[in-house]
Amino acid sequence: MEVRSEGSLQARCDKLPAPVIPRNRLHVWFIRVCSSILIWTCLVQLVAVGELWHPRLLTGISSHFSRITPFPLHVEKAILSPPPSPPLPARSYKSNGFLRVSCNGGLNQMRAAICDMVTIAQFLNLTLVVPELDKASFWSDPSNFEDIFDVRHFIESLRDEVHIVKRLPKRLSRKYGYKQLALPPVSWSNEKYYSEQILPLFSKYKVIHFNRTDARLANNNLSLDLQKLRCRVNFQALKFTPQIEALGHKLVHILQEKGPFIALHLRYEMDMLAFSGCTHGCTQEEAEELKRMRYAYRWWREKEIVSEGKRLQGLCPLTPEEVGLVMQALGFDKGMQIYIASGEIYGSERRLAALRAAFPKIVKKEMLLGPEELQQFQNHSSQMAALDFMVSISSNIFIPTYDGNMAKLVEGHRRYLGFKKSILLDRKKLVGLLDLHQNGTISWSEFEASVRQAHSKRMGQPTHRRVIPDKHKEEDYFYANPQECLCERANCDDLLGPGNPKTLR
């Protein structure tokens, strides 16, 4: 019985089921494990992203987790290393309103105006809309700002000076009914005028449109910071488009391969002669044609002009024939390359014949480049002028025959590039000497000596800018001699060597 009893007990024990973990507890355990893995992964990713975008973000958390889980963080850093440089923080501008500007005139007049408008916008804490270019002047050039200048470089290079936008917000445009104030600022104005007369207008108008921009900022008596900003815009921010730069560099390379060259800004073009009333050397028919043109443009104020009187005052561009004699008197070799940096010469090859006889190596861009290369610039005079500008600042010698805007801006740019030689012709003195030589009063040797003596101090050397109070048009133009940007001290005395004049020229 005892044995049977044990066997019976053993049989019952074998039939008992094995202990089983409840199924619901297994689910909970599985969910906890998965959740822990997911949370750890999210935290590691969060720390890594925080270090990438903001090094100070989650600093305490990252250091805490680096102590607890060094391996996962080490893996993350290995994957992300080296991290990209964090983006520059967005600049915060304080803007008093928007400034729209419509530049008037040719390329170089507009270039100077753009420099002035950037300076005014910075001084008044305004947001500048990318300038609009003149399309209604004599040249009828349809080019926009971005067709001539690298607009992205313009905006980015000045981001620490002034906020510039490509266009007005829609809510402030005239198309949506917003009323803008349009006005031309007073010419040759200083900081006081803009702070007292213009800035208060922005309390009523959020957008002001300057519809004329030529010579709206004084040459002198501005703060040094503003003068230097004008230079930064001119020499650094205003880059031509890559297409213009590439073709301009090609022109310079072609010329330099053949040796030194002179850029001659021969401003003997139809528009200049008609505007100035200068007809010396023209036929009667040509003089009448120029007069008709002058009357056709109502905004050209002077209509009846005595040509010879202006010429004797030195107010006319030299003729091609006169330029040839002057260049020979200055001692230039007959084989010197001469690049004509201008548009179509009035009278074409007939008027260039004497100059070409004296200097056979006369070239123009149309002779150095193929028609297909210049095709994109046809009927775009400002883009053509940009090519001439690039060649002129790169030439060994620059000679302007008239002191217009291009002559002045190229002169100033060459000073900035290290006082490169620019022969600034004294037209009033030259006209007198030319007449004396041509009527036989003085010999060639006397003429030659007088011309050289008259220009020994007019080669673009360092000099003070001449200031004439209340006669801004007669004093030296800021952009022709931006002395504040050429030396350590504002008066440039450190650049005036023993051989240079100590008085204003």
Concise account of the structure shown:
The chain has 505 residues and is an alpha/beta fold. Helix 15 links the parallel strand 7 and strand 8.
Write a structural description:
With 505 residues, this protein is an alpha/beta fold. Helix content is 47%, strand content 6%. The strands form two sheets. A five-stranded parallel β-sheet has the order 3-2-1-5-4, with helices on one face. A four-stranded parallel β-sheet has the order 8-7-6-9.
Q: What is the tally of beta strands?
A: 9
Q: Order of strands across the widest beta sheet?
A: 3-2-1-5-4
Q: How widely separated are the two ends?
A: 143 Å
**Rg measurement, Å:** 37 Å
Helical residues, percent: 40-55%
How many helices in DSSP terms?
21
Average pLDDT: 84
Q: In percent, how much strand structure appears in the residues? A: 5-15%
Low-confidence stretches: 1-21, 47-90, 496-505
Order of helices and strands: HHHHEHEHHEEHEHHEHHHHEHEHHHEHHH
The outline comes out as elongated
Structural class: alpha/beta
Oligomer: single chain
Largest sheet entry: 5 strands, parallel
Give the secondary structure arrangement, pairings included.
Layout: H1 2-15, H2 23-53, H3 59-68, H4 70-80, E1 98-101, H5 107-123, E2 127-129, H6 145-148, H7 151-157, E3 164-165, E4 181-183, H8 191-198, E5 207-210, H9 224-237, H10 242-257, E6 261-265, H11 270-276, H12 284-296, H13 307-312, H14 320-329, E7 337-340, H15 348-358, E8 362-363, H16 365-368, H17 371-374, H18 381-394, E9 397-400, H19 405-416, H20 427-438, H21 444-454
Parallel strand pairs: 1-2, 1-5, 2-3, 4-5, 6-7, 6-9, 7-8
